[in-house]
User: What shape does this take?
Amino acid sequence: MKNVTDSFVSLGHWPSAGSFGFNTDILATNLINLSVVLGVLIFFGKGVLSDLLDNRKQRILDTIRNSEKLREGAIEQLEKARARLRKVEIEADQFRTNGYSEIEREKLNLINSTYKTLEQLENYKNETIHFEQQRTINQARQRVFQQALQGALGTLNSCLTNELHLRTINANLGMFGAIKEITD
Assistant: This one.
């Protein structure tokens, strides 16, 4: 430390003989040089450094503002998306409910139409059975009538003699003649 103070003291006692010499004390010369460089830097660089720091501060503030705007926009979009999601969920629930209701309604309609179809088929079956019964009864009547007629003709043919046959014909012709006279 003594060398440092000696170097400052020795600056004041330089001979004015015009000789130029080198100070070989490295610590003393470095401190002086650093002091001068720092003084010059502070004096001249103060404005530049201040401008650089102000510009950097402004860019950081602009970035923060932009980030805040983006954040607000993102929050707004998120809220809109959430609102749309809620709306879509409500619509999906309504569709699901309406779908279940529609399925139940279609199920009941199908059951009702099946019952109606079964009733119609039952009616058609009953009508067909009734028709077939009537046709069978009519066929049986016709057979019975034919058999009775054949039996009656057989009986008449075996019982009728020519004379009885002629009298029956004359009686029938007489009845036809009387009916004709009444109608004329």
About this structure: Confidence is low (pLDDT under 50) at residues 7-17. The longest helix spans residues 26-159. Residues 31-148 form one domain. DSSP finds three helices and no strands in the chain.
